[in-house]
Design brief:
This protein folds into three domains: 68 residues, no CATH class; 182 residues, Rossmann fold (3-Layer(aba) Sandwich), CATH 3.40.50.150; 118 residues. The chain contains 13 helices and 17 strands. The strands form two sheets. The protein has a nine-stranded mixed β-sheet. Strands 10-12-13-11-14-17-16-15 form an eight-stranded mixed β-sheet. β1, α6 and β2 form a beta-alpha-beta unit. The longest helix has 17 residues.
Length: 387
Amino acid sequence: MLTEVVGNKLLNKEVQDYINANLTTDLHSLLLKKSPFPELSMQEIVQQIKGKQVAERKFPFLLKEGIVFPPQLNLEQSSSENTALYKSEILKGKKFIDLTSGFGIDAYYLSQNFDDITLIEQNTELLKIVGHNWNILGRKARFVNQKLEDFLNENQENFDTVYLDPARRDQNKNKVFLLEDLSPNILEIKEKLLSVSGQVVVKLSPLIDLKYLVSVLPQIFRMDIIALKNDVKEIILFLSKENKAEIICHCVNLESGEPAFSFTFGEEENAKSEYSEPEKFIYIPNNSILKAGIFNLISEKIGLKKLHPNTHIYTSAEKKEDFPGRVLEMEVIDSKSVKKKSQFNIISKNYPLKPEDIKKKYSLKDGGNDYLIFTQSKKGKIILKSV
């Protein structure tokens, strides 16, 4: 299969040694050089170097001898190993199908709890690379080189789980966010998807509006907001043909040590916050919580007080251990107490100045272990300093 992609010579020891020796070389300068291997272009070599660089931070399980990497766009669109592993802990069954397998990172992990695995991918060269890599990794699957719409029209099988990650760019490569603009259009094919599986799992952009999703997809019964090191990476929808009374939502911040937070979609509408001036402990929600928009619910469920209706920072006299975010012991100071040239992690929330402006105004250095928070309580602008 690999011979049809780039040729066996890419895996020759001399070529691999050259790739490994140039993992820290500037790729732009490398592209200007002549390839030392007549049978391979420098573009093909650099593609493998770039792939290993991305794999090191994004999916290190692929840093094995014999693995081949696709073009950069396919690498960028792939899930990280961390987010794929999280999803794999949720799904299990006998038959799994990924209708948009791409580079196969999600499929590799999600399919580990299934006996029968099918990968659909319309990009012929990409599917050949995935097939080769899975062979190296010792994983088996049925690889189908076909458009998912064509596959669905011809398919007679049922699956325990159907997974897909729609393309989020239009024909002009501009990013799109509405379901009807994605490829495939989930709204058009949802009934077909649910006719072949009792559970359809869809990965979406972290920028998509959650209330919009609920309004156009009544089949949603679960929604996971996945952040990695406080950067929201994915929104995962679980669809079912059975009508569910409630949508269960899970906010997670992987590799943070913070607890997950679960709630029912719509609970925020009836939740209320108490307000207070800063007490001993200050709480800053992680970005999965902020994406969920549960600003009052998090206060109500954990027993915290909010500083201001538009300040999503919370406080308490006694420390709460189960908070999904940062917990800091802080005190209120006045602006005259901010010493010039001091080093702080600066946070600005519901405050007129951005962190960069604050650093300039007070001649502060960024970093260190201490925090300064510029924000507002109901009484007005305040500055908080870590104790």
